[in-house]
Model the fold of this input.
Amino acid sequence: MAISVAAALGFRRRFPGAGILFYLAIASLVMPGLLVGFGIGLGFQVLGIPGGLFTSALGAQLTWTLPFGLLVMFAVFNRFNPAYEEAGRDLGATPWQNFRHIVLPIIGPSVIGVAMFGFTLSWDEIARTSQAIGDQNTLPLELQGLTTSVTTPVIYALGTMTTVLSLTVMVGCLLAVRWLTRRRLAAAMR
Done:
């Protein structure tokens, strides 16, 4: 989410190599997940970095979720009116204040949408993670391992817990969007 917003902000200004960088960022959408995961896992191994949840598996997840988040944020900033930022600069706001008080409240619901989309894409991603994580397991990999051998009640308990967690994340995000919308409308009324 944060990388998608930062990248979309960076792409708002033209810079040399922007086209190449964009195509590199979305290239993983057209490549098979197993190939991407294998390449990332092998790359980390060659560099001597042990595969794990916060190293190679995170890289594999980013290659899958970042292009979608980037494309959504491109669409958001394509409709964004830069006159709001200009008004903030005219009133003496620093770039950080401009982003925090003007841009972020306007794009906030879209940022939450990108977070939900990234969560949904990453939640059950097996192909990339299985090749990149090393000797650890994520929940989807563990569930896949449980279903291939013997069906146990653990599968149903994990299924219930993942459903409750997913619903909690969705309801929390929807409440956050509602709160942001109300806050923005209240600020507009002032």
